[in-house]
Specification:
360 residues, alpha/beta, Glutaredoxin, 6-stranded mixed beta sheet, DUF1573, Ig-like_fold, Thioredoxin-like_sf
Amino acid sequence: MKHIFLPALLAAVTLVSCKSKPAQLTFENIHLRQIYEAAKAQHKSVMLVAKGEGCKPCEDFELRYYKDTAFSKSITDKYVTVFVENSKPGNEWLSRVTNTSAIPGFVFTSEEMELRGIYIGEMSAERMKAVLAQLDTAKSFISERFDINRDSSYTTDQIKDFVGGPLKGQLQLEIYGKTKDKSVLEGVEDRLKKSIAVYPHFYNNFLLAQYYKQTGNAEKSRQYAKAALETKQTVSLTLNMQLKRFAHQMADSNYNEKNDAFMRLDSAERYVPFIALHKADSLFFEFTNTGASPMLIDNILSDCSCTVGDYPKEPVLPMQKGKIKVIVNGKTPGIFARRLRVFSNSSNSPVSLTIRGEVK
């Protein structure tokens, strides 16, 4: 009797344990193929949340999501949720797909990873409720506060093509990388060409170059890799800096980045202990061109108009040193962190500079 009862009890405990284990509906920093597999397993749509360090609206949304079970359930009833911290190396893919570093960002897709909507900026509980209700409407699409190019306006279909093409295209390339089944690449070429037709940037050209490389068309792979490298848009260059070497290799099989200029900073961060309110201070960042070609700085962009960078206008020859002068204005009192990006012909462009300090 005892021997009959014990297996039955264990079976019952196992059954209860299996039934009580909830499906995972929230993920952090996973990639598209994993997201797609989770969505298919749960038969749910997807909400991607781009977040970053020091972003208060990102922190507010995430705190509400994890603390307010009713709020999170209103989302996870129909969506697998994935938080992507795009400031961490390896997690830049979502910002590259949307071609924006703006956070928080919300990207909504179907179970099949077809784009349903994109929303940039702070998301209140009330706004999320309205967005989800609109997405419940058949064939409805959300696009709010998202700019492809601030100098132009775009239709809903163009936004779908611009973001949806790289999103689905990257997924298909990831699946192909695992399976080597070329049938999964169906439609990639058309999707990416539509995205490029709306607005070309580094990543949609880069993905198309990758597609042609995987399908054995070296000539077209070179063509689109060169198009990626010809991008002048600063956001796109910043988001894709780590991919430049791979684009160069597709564009030219003999490419060696050691032949390029390379900006090696003595220090990428400086600390200013004190700046008087409404006064200015200046400091220098020193660098060496350790590459084999002359370096020419094109531009320096700052995250604040109160911080301005000046740079050598003449080429910096190999193994020569140069200086970047930065003027910091004490615009408002308090602790600050100012960031600048230096654009040049160096293989590691753009290079980031950070200045921390306090205005009193």
